[in-house]
Amino acid sequence: MSQRDGSKSPTSDKKRKGFLQRHLPGSADTDKETTKNISPLSSPQNCSKMGVVVTSARHAHRSESTLDGPRVHLEYFLTELSDDDLSSGSWSSSANAAVAFAVATAGSSNPRDLPQVANDSFRAAARRKMSITSSAATMRVLSVLRHWVTKHSQDFDGNNQLKNLAIEFLEDIVCTPTLLPAEHKAASQLLRMLTKEEPAHKLVDLKELLQPPQKPSKENISTLSALEIAEQMTYFDHKILFAIGSEEFLGQAWMKDSKKDKAPNICLMTERFNEMCRLIVSEIISAPCLTTRVERIEKWAAVADICRCLHNFNGVLQVCAAFTNASVFRLKKTWERVGKTSKGTIDRLHNIASSDGRHRNLRDALHRCDPPCIPYLGIYLSDLTFIDEGTPNFTENGLLNFAKMRMIAHVIREVRNFQQTPYKIDPIPKAANYLLDPNLRLTDDELYQRSLGIEPRAVSRLSVSYTSSSPLTNQLKVHLAQ
Predict the structure, then answer these.
(1) CB burial class (10 A; 0-12, 13-18, 19+) of residue 338?
(2) What is the pLDDT of residues 51-83, one digit of tens each?
(3) How far apart are CA 78 and CA 41, in angstroms?
(4) N or C, which end of the chain is more exposed by having fewer CB within 10 Å?
């Protein structure tokens, strides 16, 4: 016991030594082998030092036995004890609880080491999990890239930098040694799609293809067969259709002042449509006699019917538009001589090309036919114009109108579906020269004047009643003479 004046008791050293001898046999410098045999449960702990005990548990090494944790707790605890702590008896009341807490803390802080086999199994499982996660991410990226390449190949055709980056990315994936067979196959297929030679329909230069012949064509509608003309018309239309990019359908670019730059291929399709209509009308009006005009009308009706069988509805609309042209439509005597079979064919074609119900019949025909197919672009351009002008780009809250964007995307997707399957038609040079010869096409004024020469306007009753021989005219002459 300590004295009241604060001086140490002469027996304090003995008490401390006795405490150490009771709980840790031997002196403080007892060798490690003797210390390992001490039971941790016999070592009391001071309540005021519990924080130290908990903290000291993290200094134990995992290589030591589970009993080393409490021993380290105890040694650290004893080194922190002061003489007052040892001389005071207040610690003895909570000694058992402190020892139990130290043991529990040591056990939780120093778990028993797992066998080496268990560690290897855990690492293998972790590697498998990482491999599965990596494979799933790789396949998802390849899936997105496949959709991009197959559905929007024009993005890579018109941008060499984007194409080279995609090829470099796929080559890195293919060269990865840890690649799964499915990943390697998918990446290799995409790489072949990007590096293979361009299809024939994409290598055609439209300006060179539609270049007028240097010499006037010696062919005409009578010297060429209906099949040759229909196939060559389909060949031209299909090449132009496949050259149209999705961006040309945005913002009514085909109606702007910069349409030649933003929508060149749509403008080319429109120009080609008008040139074909003018050629057909010119061939009919330029016929020397009534019989020849009737033969040419029947020949062009056969051409349009073959275009229908080839699913070239753009060609069908070209012929039907020529038949309804004012210069041809007004020739009643000519239409009366057209054969019954040809009239039935023309009526069926006009039924398909009818604009009733927003071209309902033509849309049904397009949805029923199998590819390859060439649609009439006019119906899709009308749809895009209606959507663009009738729906705002932003909502009332200032957000992007995704409903409008989806409608535009749906229309463009329909056109893109027709661009997936090309025709297997070889060009026919003599038919091409005939269809492209500008000397065979007359202007609208020339066509109408020739039409009036073939069948003049009927004299109206009003003009007949006021002829020079009418009584009213004779009476007026007499009155003026007087």
Answers:
(1) middle
(2) 444 444 444 444 444 444 444 444 444 444 444
(3) 14
(4) C
Same domain, 190 and 216: no
3-state secondary structure of 31: coil
d(Cα 336, Cα 294) in Å, to the nearest integer? 9
Residue 387: which domain range? Answer: 206-454
Are 294 and 183 part of one and the same domain? no
- pLDDT digit string, tens, across residues 359-411: 999 999 999 998 899 999 999 999 999 999 999 999 888 899 999 999 999 99
Mapped onto helix, strand or coil, the DSSP state of residue 256 is coil
- Cis previous bond, 372, omega within 30: yes
Looking at the fold, whether 331 and 449 belong to one and the same domain comes out as yes
In a domain, 220, yes or no: yes
Residue 160 lies in a domain: yes
DSSP for 350-411, please give it: HHHH--HHHHHHHHHHHHHSPSS-B--HHHHHHHHHHHHHHS-SB-TTS-B-HHHHHHHHHH
Nearest alpha carbon to residue 240 among 266, 211, 213, 274 = 266
Q: Which tens digits make up the pLDDT trace of 134-154?
A: 667 777 888 888 888 887 777
Query: Is there a single domain that holds both residue 103 and residue 145?
Result: no
- 110: its two tokens: 């120093």
**What is the number of structural domains in the chain?**
3
Q: Do 97 and 150 share a domain, yes or no?
A: no
Tell me the one-letter amino acid at 61: H
